[in-house]
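Margin note from the TA: students keep mixing up input and output lines. Inputs are the sequences; the output is the structure of the whole complex. Example:
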Amino acid sequence: MPAPCLEVERVTVRRGTTVVVDAASLRLGEGAIVTIEGASGSGKSTLLRAIATLLPTASGTLSFRGLDVATLSLPDYRRQVAYVPQLPPMFDGTVAENVAAGPRFRGATLAADVVAKLLTRVSLDAGLATRAASSLSGGEKLRVALARALANEPVALLLDEPTSALDPASAHHIVDLVVELARAGTAVLAVTHSAEHAARLGGLHYRMTAGVLGVVAPP
Amino acid sequence: MTYLEIPAPRLALALGLIALAIGLSRLARLGLERDLGLGTVRAAVQLTAIGYGLRLLFAHPSPLAIFGLLALMTAVAAFTSTRRVPDGPGTRELFPYALVAILGGAAIAVLPMMLFVIRPKPWFDGRYVIPIGGMMLSSAMNVVAQVFERLFATARVERPVIEQALALGATPAQSVAPYMRAALRGALTPTINGLVTVGLVALPGMMTGQIVSGAAPEQAVRYQIVIMYQLVAVAAVSGYLAAAFARRLLFTSGARLRAEG
Protein backbone atom coordinates (compact mmCIF):
# COMPACT_ATOMS: atom_id res chain seq x y z
CA MET A 1 0.00 0.00 0.00
CA PRO A 2 1.52 3.37 -0.96
CA ALA A 3 1.99 6.00 1.73
CA PRO A 4 -1.03 8.30 1.99
CA CYS A 5 -0.70 11.90 0.90
CA LEU A 6 -1.20 13.05 4.49
CA GLU A 7 -1.18 11.02 7.65
CA VAL A 8 -2.06 12.50 11.03
CA GLU A 9 -1.15 10.23 13.92
CA ARG A 10 -2.35 10.99 17.43
CA VAL A 11 -1.84 14.72 17.02
CA THR A 12 -2.59 16.84 20.08
CA VAL A 13 -2.81 20.62 19.95
CA ARG A 14 -2.89 22.76 23.07
CA ARG A 15 -3.80 26.38 23.59
CA GLY A 16 -2.04 27.27 26.79
CA THR A 17 -2.86 24.34 29.06
CA THR A 18 -6.17 23.54 27.31
CA VAL A 19 -6.21 20.53 24.99
CA VAL A 20 -8.01 21.73 21.84
CA VAL A 21 -7.30 18.68 19.68
CA ASP A 22 -6.89 15.39 21.53
CA ALA A 23 -4.78 12.70 19.83
CA ALA A 24 -6.45 13.05 16.43
CA SER A 25 -5.59 10.54 13.70
CA LEU A 26 -6.63 10.57 10.05
CA ARG A 27 -5.36 9.61 6.62
CA LEU A 28 -5.85 11.45 3.37
CA GLY A 29 -5.07 9.39 0.28
CA GLU A 30 -3.74 10.89 -2.96
CA GLY A 31 -6.65 12.54 -4.79
CA ALA A 32 -9.09 11.59 -2.01
CA ILE A 33 -11.67 13.70 -0.20
CA VAL A 34 -11.96 13.70 3.56
CA THR A 35 -14.38 15.93 5.46
CA ILE A 36 -14.40 16.83 9.12
CA GLU A 37 -17.72 17.93 10.53
CA GLY A 38 -18.17 19.50 13.90
CA ALA A 39 -19.73 22.30 15.88
CA SER A 40 -18.02 25.66 16.34
CA GLY A 41 -15.25 25.37 18.88
CA SER A 42 -14.94 21.60 18.50
CA GLY A 43 -11.30 21.99 17.43
CA LYS A 44 -11.68 21.09 13.75
CA SER A 45 -10.24 24.36 12.43
CA THR A 46 -7.41 24.13 14.94
CA LEU A 47 -6.57 20.65 13.66
CA LEU A 48 -6.58 21.96 10.09
CA ARG A 49 -4.28 24.85 11.04
CA ALA A 50 -1.97 22.39 12.78
CA ILE A 51 -1.87 20.22 9.63
CA ALA A 52 -1.07 23.42 7.70
CA THR A 53 1.85 23.82 10.19
CA LEU A 54 0.59 27.25 11.20
CA LEU A 55 0.08 25.99 14.76
CA PRO A 56 2.54 23.83 16.70
CA THR A 57 1.48 20.37 17.82
CA ALA A 58 2.04 19.27 21.40
CA SER A 59 2.50 15.62 20.43
CA GLY A 60 1.86 13.17 17.62
CA THR A 61 3.25 13.04 14.10
CA LEU A 62 2.26 14.53 10.80
CA SER A 63 3.52 12.78 7.67
CA PHE A 64 3.46 13.90 4.07
CA ARG A 65 3.87 11.09 1.54
CA GLY A 66 5.46 8.95 4.21
CA LEU A 67 7.91 11.60 5.45
CA ASP A 68 7.69 13.24 8.87
CA VAL A 69 6.77 16.88 8.20
CA ALA A 70 9.10 17.96 11.02
CA THR A 71 12.01 16.91 8.77
CA LEU A 72 10.77 18.83 5.69
CA SER A 73 11.24 22.44 4.62
CA LEU A 74 8.02 24.07 5.80
CA PRO A 75 7.69 26.52 2.86
CA ASP A 76 8.01 23.53 0.48
CA TYR A 77 5.48 21.49 2.45
CA ARG A 78 3.05 24.42 2.63
CA ARG A 79 3.23 24.90 -1.14
CA GLN A 80 2.24 21.28 -1.64
CA VAL A 81 -0.39 21.18 1.09
CA ALA A 82 -2.31 24.40 0.47
CA TYR A 83 -4.33 25.86 3.32
CA VAL A 84 -7.30 28.11 2.51
CA PRO A 85 -8.81 29.76 5.60
CA GLN A 86 -12.48 30.41 6.16
CA LEU A 87 -12.30 34.10 5.25
CA PRO A 88 -9.19 34.20 3.08
CA PRO A 89 -7.45 37.57 3.37
CA MET A 90 -6.39 39.22 0.13
CA PHE A 91 -2.93 40.73 -0.28
CA ASP A 92 -2.74 44.37 -1.39
CA GLY A 93 -2.84 44.59 -5.18
CA THR A 94 -4.76 43.12 -8.05
CA VAL A 95 -6.45 39.75 -8.38
CA ALA A 96 -3.64 38.66 -10.73
CA GLU A 97 -1.01 39.65 -8.15
CA ASN A 98 -2.88 37.64 -5.53
CA VAL A 99 -3.10 34.57 -7.74
CA ALA A 100 0.61 34.82 -8.54
CA ALA A 101 1.69 35.30 -4.90
CA GLY A 102 2.75 31.70 -4.22
CA PRO A 103 5.03 31.37 -7.26
CA ARG A 104 6.39 34.88 -6.55
CA PHE A 105 7.47 33.76 -3.05
CA ARG A 106 9.73 31.16 -4.67
CA GLY A 107 11.03 33.68 -7.20
CA ALA A 108 8.89 32.58 -10.16
CA THR A 109 6.52 34.68 -12.21
CA LEU A 110 3.14 33.51 -13.38
CA ALA A 111 2.26 34.38 -16.99
CA ALA A 112 -0.98 36.29 -17.59
CA ASP A 113 -2.50 33.37 -19.52
CA VAL A 114 -1.80 31.01 -16.59
CA VAL A 115 -3.52 33.46 -14.24
CA ALA A 116 -6.47 33.63 -16.65
CA LYS A 117 -6.66 29.81 -16.77
CA LEU A 118 -6.63 29.56 -12.98
CA LEU A 119 -9.38 32.16 -12.69
CA THR A 120 -11.48 30.29 -15.24
CA ARG A 121 -10.87 27.06 -13.36
CA VAL A 122 -12.48 28.53 -10.23
CA SER A 123 -15.35 29.90 -12.35
CA LEU A 124 -14.24 33.51 -12.27
CA ASP A 125 -14.18 35.84 -15.26
CA ALA A 126 -10.54 36.15 -16.42
CA GLY A 127 -11.27 39.87 -16.83
CA LEU A 128 -11.18 40.20 -13.04
CA ALA A 129 -7.38 39.84 -13.13
CA THR A 130 -6.78 43.58 -13.12
CA ARG A 131 -9.34 44.39 -10.42
CA ALA A 132 -8.20 45.34 -6.92
CA ALA A 133 -8.56 42.17 -4.85
CA SER A 134 -9.96 44.17 -1.93
CA SER A 135 -12.99 45.18 -4.03
CA LEU A 136 -14.25 41.59 -4.49
CA SER A 137 -17.25 40.00 -2.77
CA GLY A 138 -16.77 37.25 -0.17
CA GLY A 139 -17.53 34.50 -2.66
CA GLU A 140 -15.16 35.97 -5.24
CA LYS A 141 -12.40 36.27 -2.64
CA LEU A 142 -12.79 32.60 -1.76
CA ARG A 143 -12.46 31.66 -5.43
CA VAL A 144 -9.41 33.88 -5.82
CA ALA A 145 -7.96 32.20 -2.71
CA LEU A 146 -8.56 28.80 -4.33
CA ALA A 147 -6.92 29.96 -7.57
CA ARG A 148 -4.05 31.38 -5.50
CA ALA A 149 -3.61 28.02 -3.75
CA LEU A 150 -3.82 26.13 -7.06
CA ALA A 151 -1.11 28.36 -8.57
CA ASN A 152 1.37 26.46 -6.36
CA GLU A 153 0.17 23.19 -7.96
CA PRO A 154 -0.52 21.58 -4.56
CA VAL A 155 -1.10 17.87 -4.09
CA ALA A 156 -3.57 18.53 -1.27
CA LEU A 157 -5.95 21.33 -0.32
CA LEU A 158 -6.88 22.08 3.29
CA LEU A 159 -10.17 23.97 3.22
CA ASP A 160 -11.57 25.58 6.35
CA GLU A 161 -15.35 26.02 6.09
CA PRO A 162 -15.17 26.77 2.38
CA THR A 163 -18.91 27.45 2.12
CA SER A 164 -19.79 29.11 5.41
CA ALA A 165 -19.63 32.73 4.24
CA LEU A 166 -21.50 32.13 0.97
CA ASP A 167 -25.09 32.22 -0.18
CA PRO A 168 -26.55 28.74 -0.93
CA ALA A 169 -26.06 28.99 -4.71
CA SER A 170 -22.39 30.03 -4.44
CA ALA A 171 -21.84 27.42 -1.76
CA HIS A 172 -23.11 24.63 -4.03
CA HIS A 173 -20.93 25.94 -6.80
CA ILE A 174 -17.85 25.82 -4.56
CA VAL A 175 -18.70 22.29 -3.41
CA ASP A 176 -18.96 21.16 -7.04
CA LEU A 177 -15.69 22.89 -7.83
CA VAL A 178 -13.92 21.12 -4.94
CA VAL A 179 -15.26 17.74 -6.07
CA GLU A 180 -13.99 18.50 -9.56
CA LEU A 181 -10.52 19.42 -8.23
CA ALA A 182 -10.38 16.13 -6.34
CA ARG A 183 -11.34 14.24 -9.49
CA ALA A 184 -8.49 16.00 -11.25
CA GLY A 185 -6.12 14.52 -8.64
CA THR A 186 -5.86 17.09 -5.81
CA ALA A 187 -6.54 15.55 -2.42
CA VAL A 188 -8.97 17.59 -0.31
CA LEU A 189 -9.33 17.80 3.44
CA ALA A 190 -12.32 20.03 4.18
CA VAL A 191 -13.67 21.20 7.49
CA THR A 192 -17.35 22.08 7.57
CA HIS A 193 -20.23 22.43 9.99
CA SER A 194 -22.73 21.61 7.23
CA ALA A 195 -23.66 17.91 7.09
CA GLU A 196 -25.24 18.55 3.71
CA HIS A 197 -22.05 19.93 2.20
CA ALA A 198 -20.03 17.14 3.78
CA ALA A 199 -22.37 14.63 2.13
CA ARG A 200 -22.15 16.41 -1.23
CA LEU A 201 -18.37 16.44 -1.07
CA GLY A 202 -18.40 12.69 -0.48
CA GLY A 203 -15.32 10.75 0.60
CA LEU A 204 -14.56 9.75 4.16
CA HIS A 205 -16.40 11.65 6.89
CA TYR A 206 -15.02 12.36 10.32
CA ARG A 207 -16.73 14.13 13.17
CA MET A 208 -14.97 16.25 15.75
CA THR A 209 -16.53 16.56 19.19
CA ALA A 210 -14.78 18.55 21.91
CA GLY A 211 -11.38 17.94 20.40
CA VAL A 212 -11.88 14.23 19.75
CA LEU A 213 -11.96 13.04 16.15
CA GLY A 214 -13.96 9.99 15.13
CA VAL A 215 -14.90 8.33 11.83
CA VAL A 216 -18.58 8.69 10.93
CA ALA A 217 -18.85 6.98 7.58
CA PRO A 218 -16.45 4.65 5.80
CA PRO A 219 -15.57 5.47 2.20
CA MET B 1 33.25 86.65 23.27
CA THR B 2 31.58 85.31 26.39
CA TYR B 3 28.08 84.01 26.94
CA LEU B 4 25.57 85.24 29.49
CA GLU B 5 25.21 83.12 32.58
CA ILE B 6 21.77 82.42 34.08
CA PRO B 7 21.63 82.86 37.87
CA ALA B 8 19.38 80.40 39.70
CA PRO B 9 16.67 82.94 40.71
CA ARG B 10 16.24 84.01 37.10
CA LEU B 11 16.12 80.36 36.02
CA ALA B 12 13.10 79.98 38.29
CA LEU B 13 11.31 82.58 36.15
CA ALA B 14 11.28 80.02 33.33
CA LEU B 15 8.87 78.02 35.47
CA GLY B 16 6.27 80.57 34.43
CA LEU B 17 6.13 78.81 31.05
CA ILE B 18 5.24 75.54 32.76
CA ALA B 19 2.63 77.35 34.87
CA LEU B 20 1.11 78.59 31.62
CA ALA B 21 0.90 75.03 30.22
CA ILE B 22 -0.54 73.69 33.48
CA GLY B 23 -3.10 76.48 33.47
CA LEU B 24 -4.14 75.63 29.91
CA SER B 25 -4.31 71.93 30.79
CA ARG B 26 -6.65 72.73 33.66
CA LEU B 27 -8.74 75.09 31.56
CA ALA B 28 -9.19 72.55 28.77
CA ARG B 29 -9.53 69.65 31.27
CA LEU B 30 -6.70 67.69 29.68
CA GLY B 31 -5.80 66.10 33.01
CA LEU B 32 -2.08 66.55 32.23
CA GLU B 33 -1.22 68.72 35.23
CA ARG B 34 0.37 65.88 37.17
CA ASP B 35 2.40 64.67 34.16
CA LEU B 36 3.52 68.22 33.44
CA GLY B 37 4.52 68.77 37.06
CA LEU B 38 6.39 65.49 37.29
CA GLY B 39 8.07 66.05 33.92
CA THR B 40 9.18 69.53 34.98
CA VAL B 41 10.75 68.28 38.17
CA ARG B 42 12.39 65.30 36.46
CA ALA B 43 13.83 67.46 33.68
CA ALA B 44 15.28 69.94 36.19
CA VAL B 45 16.70 67.24 38.47
CA GLN B 46 18.11 65.08 35.67
CA LEU B 47 19.68 68.02 33.83
CA THR B 48 21.16 69.51 37.01
CA ALA B 49 22.62 66.14 37.92
CA ILE B 50 24.17 65.63 34.49
CA GLY B 51 25.44 69.23 34.57
CA TYR B 52 27.38 68.63 37.78
CA GLY B 53 28.27 65.13 36.64
CA LEU B 54 29.80 66.44 33.44
CA ARG B 55 31.62 69.16 35.33
CA LEU B 56 33.16 66.50 37.53
CA LEU B 57 33.93 64.36 34.52
CA PHE B 58 35.64 67.18 32.61
CA ALA B 59 37.66 68.10 35.71
CA HIS B 60 38.86 64.52 36.15
CA PRO B 61 38.58 62.92 32.76
CA SER B 62 38.99 59.14 32.79
CA PRO B 63 38.08 56.65 30.07
CA LEU B 64 36.32 54.52 32.66
CA ALA B 65 34.04 57.37 33.74
CA ILE B 66 33.29 58.46 30.15
CA PHE B 67 32.50 54.96 28.89
CA GLY B 68 30.67 54.15 32.13
CA LEU B 69 28.37 57.13 31.64
CA LEU B 70 27.82 56.23 27.98
CA ALA B 71 26.98 52.66 29.00
CA LEU B 72 24.47 53.90 31.56
CA MET B 73 22.89 56.20 28.97
CA THR B 74 22.68 53.30 26.50
CA ALA B 75 21.04 51.03 29.07
CA VAL B 76 18.44 53.67 30.00
CA ALA B 77 17.73 54.29 26.30
CA ALA B 78 17.32 50.55 25.63
CA PHE B 79 15.05 50.09 28.63
CA THR B 80 12.91 53.09 27.66
CA SER B 81 12.57 51.94 24.04
CA THR B 82 10.96 48.67 25.17
CA ARG B 83 8.47 50.24 27.59
CA ARG B 84 5.62 51.09 25.24
CA VAL B 85 5.37 48.06 22.98
CA PRO B 86 1.99 46.68 24.05
CA ASP B 87 1.96 43.92 21.40
CA GLY B 88 5.58 42.92 21.94
CA PRO B 89 6.97 40.07 24.02
CA GLY B 90 7.75 42.32 26.99
CA THR B 91 10.62 44.46 28.23
CA ARG B 92 12.63 41.56 29.60
CA GLU B 93 12.80 39.79 26.25
CA LEU B 94 13.11 42.95 24.13
CA PHE B 95 15.80 44.67 26.21
CA PRO B 96 18.91 42.86 24.90
CA TYR B 97 17.76 43.37 21.31
CA ALA B 98 17.03 47.06 21.96
CA LEU B 99 20.46 47.39 23.53
CA VAL B 100 22.24 45.98 20.47
CA ALA B 101 20.09 48.00 18.02
CA ILE B 102 20.69 51.28 19.88
CA LEU B 103 24.36 50.65 20.52
CA GLY B 104 24.91 49.51 16.93
CA GLY B 105 23.34 52.60 15.38
CA ALA B 106 24.97 55.02 17.83
CA ALA B 107 28.43 53.43 17.55
CA ILE B 108 28.39 53.49 13.75
CA ALA B 109 27.31 57.12 13.80
CA VAL B 110 29.72 58.31 16.50
CA LEU B 111 32.99 56.39 16.19
CA PRO B 112 34.06 57.32 12.63
CA MET B 113 33.09 60.96 13.17
CA MET B 114 35.17 61.14 16.36
CA LEU B 115 38.13 59.38 14.77
CA PHE B 116 38.23 61.03 11.37
CA VAL B 117 36.08 64.18 11.26
CA ILE B 118 35.92 66.00 14.60
CA ARG B 119 39.15 64.39 15.88
CA PRO B 120 39.30 65.52 19.51
CA LYS B 121 42.35 64.47 21.55
CA PRO B 122 41.79 61.83 22.88
CA TRP B 123 39.09 60.69 20.46
CA PHE B 124 36.77 59.89 23.37
CA ASP B 125 37.08 63.37 24.95
CA GLY B 126 33.99 63.60 27.14
CA ARG B 127 33.26 67.19 26.07
CA TYR B 128 32.50 65.86 22.59
CA VAL B 129 31.62 62.21 22.89
CA ILE B 130 29.04 62.59 25.66
CA PRO B 131 26.81 65.32 24.19
CA ILE B 132 27.06 63.89 20.67
CA GLY B 133 26.66 60.31 21.93
CA GLY B 134 23.65 61.40 23.96
CA MET B 135 21.97 62.91 20.93
CA MET B 136 22.57 59.73 18.94
CA LEU B 137 21.39 57.44 21.73
CA SER B 138 18.25 59.49 22.20
CA SER B 139 17.50 59.39 18.50
CA ALA B 140 18.24 55.65 18.32
CA MET B 141 15.95 55.08 21.30
CA ASN B 142 13.04 56.77 19.53
CA VAL B 143 13.66 54.95 16.26
CA VAL B 144 13.90 51.55 17.98
CA ALA B 145 10.77 52.21 20.07
CA GLN B 146 8.86 53.24 16.97
CA VAL B 147 9.97 50.24 14.88
CA PHE B 148 9.20 47.78 17.70
CA GLU B 149 5.82 49.30 18.45
CA ARG B 150 4.81 49.40 14.83
CA LEU B 151 6.00 45.95 13.77
CA PHE B 152 4.53 44.08 16.72
CA ALA B 153 1.23 45.96 16.43
CA THR B 154 1.06 45.34 12.68
CA ALA B 155 1.86 41.65 13.12
CA ARG B 156 -1.08 41.34 15.51
CA VAL B 157 -3.53 43.14 13.24
CA GLU B 158 -2.27 41.54 10.02
CA ARG B 159 -1.86 38.05 11.46
CA PRO B 160 -4.31 36.42 8.98
CA VAL B 161 -2.50 37.98 6.01
CA ILE B 162 0.92 36.95 7.29
CA GLU B 163 -0.31 33.39 7.91
CA GLN B 164 -1.83 33.28 4.44
CA ALA B 165 1.54 34.24 2.97
CA LEU B 166 3.24 31.52 5.04
CA ALA B 167 0.58 29.03 3.90
CA LEU B 168 1.48 29.87 0.30
CA GLY B 169 5.11 29.00 0.93
CA ALA B 170 6.49 32.41 1.90
CA THR B 171 9.48 32.42 4.23
CA PRO B 172 8.95 34.34 7.49
CA ALA B 173 11.01 37.20 6.02
CA GLN B 174 8.87 37.32 2.88
CA SER B 175 5.65 37.18 4.86
CA VAL B 176 6.43 40.36 6.80
CA ALA B 177 8.53 42.19 4.18
CA PRO B 178 5.88 44.85 3.39
CA TYR B 179 5.48 45.66 7.09
CA MET B 180 9.24 45.81 7.63
CA ARG B 181 9.54 48.30 4.79
CA ALA B 182 6.67 50.42 6.13
CA ALA B 183 8.15 50.44 9.64
CA LEU B 184 11.59 51.45 8.37
CA ARG B 185 10.20 54.15 6.13
CA GLY B 186 8.23 55.44 9.10
CA ALA B 187 11.36 55.51 11.22
CA LEU B 188 13.44 57.32 8.60
CA THR B 189 10.84 59.88 7.55
CA PRO B 190 11.22 62.31 10.50
CA THR B 191 15.00 62.29 10.02
CA ILE B 192 14.64 63.00 6.31
CA ASN B 193 12.15 65.77 7.08
CA GLY B 194 14.73 67.15 9.50
CA LEU B 195 17.40 67.09 6.77
CA VAL B 196 15.33 69.03 4.28
CA THR B 197 14.01 71.65 6.70
CA VAL B 198 17.06 72.24 8.90
CA GLY B 199 18.11 75.87 8.68
CA LEU B 200 14.76 76.78 7.13
CA VAL B 201 12.43 75.81 9.94
CA ALA B 202 14.59 74.59 12.79
CA LEU B 203 17.93 75.80 14.08
CA PRO B 204 18.88 72.73 16.06
CA GLY B 205 20.01 72.68 19.65
CA MET B 206 23.67 71.83 19.16
CA MET B 207 24.16 74.64 16.70
CA THR B 208 22.19 77.22 18.66
CA GLY B 209 24.02 76.16 21.81
CA GLN B 210 27.38 76.70 20.20
CA ILE B 211 26.32 80.06 18.78
CA VAL B 212 25.00 81.21 22.17
CA SER B 213 28.25 80.18 23.82
CA GLY B 214 30.25 82.22 21.36
CA ALA B 215 31.33 79.86 18.59
CA ALA B 216 31.57 81.19 15.05
CA PRO B 217 28.26 80.41 13.31
CA GLU B 218 29.95 78.91 10.24
CA GLN B 219 31.81 76.45 12.49
CA ALA B 220 28.68 75.69 14.53
CA VAL B 221 26.96 74.90 11.25
CA ARG B 222 29.65 72.39 10.31
CA TYR B 223 29.07 70.56 13.58
CA GLN B 224 25.38 70.58 12.87
CA ILE B 225 25.90 69.10 9.41
CA VAL B 226 27.88 66.26 10.95
CA ILE B 227 25.14 65.75 13.55
CA MET B 228 22.40 65.64 10.93
CA TYR B 229 24.25 63.03 8.89
CA GLN B 230 24.90 61.04 12.04
CA LEU B 231 21.19 61.09 12.84
CA VAL B 232 20.46 59.63 9.41
CA ALA B 233 22.90 56.79 10.03
CA VAL B 234 21.40 56.17 13.47
CA ALA B 235 17.85 56.01 12.11
CA ALA B 236 18.92 53.68 9.30
CA VAL B 237 21.13 51.32 11.31
CA SER B 238 19.17 51.21 14.58
CA GLY B 239 15.89 51.01 12.66
CA TYR B 240 17.15 48.19 10.49
CA LEU B 241 18.53 46.24 13.45
CA ALA B 242 15.31 46.73 15.45
CA ALA B 243 13.22 45.55 12.50
CA ALA B 244 15.42 42.50 11.97
CA PHE B 245 15.25 41.62 15.68
CA ALA B 246 11.48 42.15 15.79
CA ARG B 247 11.08 39.86 12.80
CA ARG B 248 13.12 37.21 14.54
CA LEU B 249 10.99 37.54 17.68
CA LEU B 250 7.74 37.33 15.71
CA PHE B 251 8.38 33.77 14.53
CA THR B 252 9.14 30.49 16.21
CA SER B 253 11.79 28.13 14.92
CA GLY B 254 9.11 26.29 12.91
CA ALA B 255 8.54 29.36 10.66
CA ARG B 256 5.28 30.01 12.52
CA LEU B 257 4.02 33.25 13.96
CA ARG B 258 4.35 33.13 17.72
CA ALA B 259 1.14 32.48 19.62
CA GLU B 260 -0.66 35.60 20.76
CA GLY B 261 -0.45 36.85 24.33
